[in-house]
């Protein structure tokens, strides 16, 4: 943190609140500050300190920038808005005439949020959102502030997700439905997180020496299976057949056509709040071609015994994050409830547009395949991504005798996918 007057280093509660990334990477302990943002902002302004992580920078240290609008009223025919100033505590909020505000996007957002409130209040019966009013009212103002704070929290979470992800595609977060905030007790990871009792045995010790992996004696041939991709890196094998990609010991370079899943999701995706009671979902922001790799399903790798114990705990909520890794045996399960990537938020459909495949790269232990999701058809930008939690597939991609299946459930969960072929229950 910088001193706005001289740029000196400061070690105080704000520094504790921010933490130290390098120290964390070295294994040091980082203790979060218990003070609120408002308290920290007041300290910074009193001491003329700059702390970007709580919204105080050189630009607004002594200046005022609108963060969001909290309320609206009419006074003698003039329109006034209650303004929350960026980097300033709520105790400094002020009423400002509309002509003083140079923030058209925030004004539009204020009205959009207000109309969302009215729509919910009137059970969605508003057809023409042009309403004249003197003030928004206490309950509406409370909703507007909560919505603004939610938007800021989701934006921070979005930035955190993009810092943690290791793939090229961007991640976005959107909630235009309710006041649900960031998921609690969820940690974003890019690869499997092993737990006690999980011992893998199949690390690759050799790799191919191909100059052209399409025509050479490549890793799939050595494993006794067919090459999984075509020249456009689209999947060409049936579900249930394994994918063997080139590994870190192979002589081929990063542009090898047999390196698809290991490069990570190539598409920009959006985690969004569904409006039909299915919680969070994921939609693509780009067009996805048929049979293309979209994402991996990752989480904690646990033993079947631990999966049974956790499954009993999850039953009351109808949670569906446990997947058995039963390619050749039933020893391990992936649990994406607390640790996972964007696939954690992908919803079920009885007529999905994603299909599961088992993938082996550097770890050739057949008990522990990686779980890759490929598109079953062309997917339009803005369309929600789904897969069948019972792994039935869709269209011309029918499952084989070997497949990945969800951990056994003890209760029946009502399906809300809305597909014409919906089975009614998960």
CATH class division of the largest domain? Mainly Beta
Shape: elongated
Per CATH, the superfamily of the largest domain is SET domain
Element-level helix/strand string: EHHHEEEEHHEEEHEEEEEHEEEEEEEEEE
Strand order of the largest sheet: 8-13-15-14-23
CATH topology (level 3) name of the largest domain: Beta-clip-like
How many individual domains? Answer: 3
Rounded average pLDDT: 84
Q: Note the main sheet.
A: 5 strands, mixed
> How much of the residues is beta strand, in percent?
15-25%
| Number of helical segments with 4 or more residues | 7
Structure description:
Residues 1-28 and 392-410 have low confidence and may be disordered. The chain is of the alpha/beta class and 426 residues long. It folds into 3 domains: 2-54, no CATH class; 68-162, OB fold (Dihydrolipoamide Acetyltransferase, E2P) (Beta Barrel); 174-406, Beta Complex (Beta-clip-like), CATH 2.170.270. The chain contains 7 helices and 23 strands. A hairpin with an 8-residue loop joins strand 4 and strand 5. The strands form 8 sheets. The chain has a 5-stranded mixed beta sheet with strand order 8-13-15-14-23.
């Amino acid at each position: 943190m910088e001193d706005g007057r001289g740029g000196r280093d400061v070690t105080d509660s704000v520094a504790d609140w921010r933490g130290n990334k390098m120290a964390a990477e070295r294994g040091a302990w980082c203790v979060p500050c218990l003070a609120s943002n408002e308290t920290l902002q007041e300290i910074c302004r009193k001491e003329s300190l700059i702390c970007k992580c709580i919204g105080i920078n050189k630009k607004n240290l002594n200046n005022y920038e609108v963060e969001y609008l909290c309320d609206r009223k009419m006074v003698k025919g003039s329109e006034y808005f209650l303004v929350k100033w960026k980097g300033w505590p709520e105790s400094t909020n002020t009423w400002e005439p509309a002509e003083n505000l140079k923030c058209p996007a925030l004004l539009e957002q204020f009205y959009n949020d207000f109309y969302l409130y009215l729509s919910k209040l009137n059970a969605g019966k508003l057809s023409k959102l042009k309403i004249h009013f003197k003030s928004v009212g206490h309950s509406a103002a409370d909703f507007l502030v909560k919505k603004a704070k939610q938007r800021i929290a989701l934006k921070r979470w979005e930035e955190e997700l993009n810092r943690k992800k290791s793939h090229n595609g961007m991640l976005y977060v959107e909630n235009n439905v309710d006041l649900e905030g960031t998921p609690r007790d969820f940690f974003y990871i890019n690869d499997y997180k092993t737990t006690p009792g999980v011992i893998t045995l199949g690390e690759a010790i050799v790799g191919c020496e191909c100059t052209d992996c399409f025509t050479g004696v490549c890793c799939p041939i050595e494993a006794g299976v067919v090459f999984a991709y075509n020249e456009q890196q689209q999947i060409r094998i049936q579900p249930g057949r394994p994918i063997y990609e080139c590994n870190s010991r192979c002589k081929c370079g990063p542009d090898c056509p047999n390196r698809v899943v290991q490069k990570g999701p190539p598409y920009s995706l959006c985690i969004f709040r569904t409006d039909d009671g299915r919680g969070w979902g994921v939609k693509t922001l780009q067009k996805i071609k048929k049979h293309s790799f979209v994402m991996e399903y990752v989480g904690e790798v646990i033993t079947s015994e631990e999966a049974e114990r956790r499954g009993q705990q999850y039953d009351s909520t109808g949670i569906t994050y446990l997947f058995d890794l039963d390619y050749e045996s039933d020893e391990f399960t992936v649990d994406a409830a607390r640790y996972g990537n964007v696939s954690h938020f992908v919803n079920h459909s009885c007529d999905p547009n994603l299909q599961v495949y088992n993938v082996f790269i550097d770890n050739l232990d057949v008990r522990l395949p990686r779980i890759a999701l490929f598109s079953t058809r062309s997917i339009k930008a803005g369309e929600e991504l789904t897969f069948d939690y019972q792994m039935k597939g869709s269209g011309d991609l029918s499952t084989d005798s070997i497949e990945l299946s969800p951990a056994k459930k003890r209760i029946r969960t009502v399906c809300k996918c809305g597909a014409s072929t919906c089975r009614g229950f998960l």
